Structure to design on (157 residues):
């Protein structure tokens, strides 16, 4: 599991991201299995969003595999009143952003990709220090290591 100091660093990154992009209404970092690492999601139930993100990630990984598009990098969903964007964050985490409909999607991607990379570095380094490569290693069987060019492991079926 990621320790409290790393969780604080991830939360700080989420808060800095929300300060830089005013039309973000929420930011969440979660494990690929849907466990919340840190969140800044006022008015939104973080555990539910993390679980749904894990489900969407599973479908996205399968789609990229089935279509030969390489490993998962990001997912963008547009609803009637805004966006949900999910970005790979290292080998075992994802960053999900909630944005208002008026957001500049290019800026959303630019900032989301940068923050995802920073959060991925923090989480991966923390997992390396503790010798764990999966935040749910005790609850689930170990998964094969990520292949080169594949930022996230495939969810088990």
């Amino acid at each position: 599991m990621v320790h409290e100091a790393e969780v604080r660093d991830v939360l700080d990154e989420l808060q800095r991201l929300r300060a830089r992009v005013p039309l973000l209404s929420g930011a969440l970092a979660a494990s690929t299995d849907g466990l919340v690492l840190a969140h800044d999601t006022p008015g939104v139930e973080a555990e539910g969003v993390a679980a749904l993100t894990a489900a969407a990630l599973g479908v996205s990984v399968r789609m990229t595999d089935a279509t030969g598009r390489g490993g998962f990098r990001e997912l963008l969903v547009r609803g009637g009143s805004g966006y949900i964007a999910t970005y790979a964050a290292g080998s075992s985490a994802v960053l999900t952003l909630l944005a208002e409909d008026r957001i500049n999607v290019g800026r959303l991607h630019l900032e989301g990709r940068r923050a995802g990379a920073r959060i991925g570095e923090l989480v991966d380094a923390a997992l390396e220090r503790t010798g764990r490569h999966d935040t749910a290693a005790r609850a689930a069987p170990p998964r094969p290591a990520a292949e080169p060019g594949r930022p996230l492991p495939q969810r088990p079926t």
User: Anything to note?
Assistant: The beta strands are 24-31, 36-40, 74-79, 82-89, 93-100.
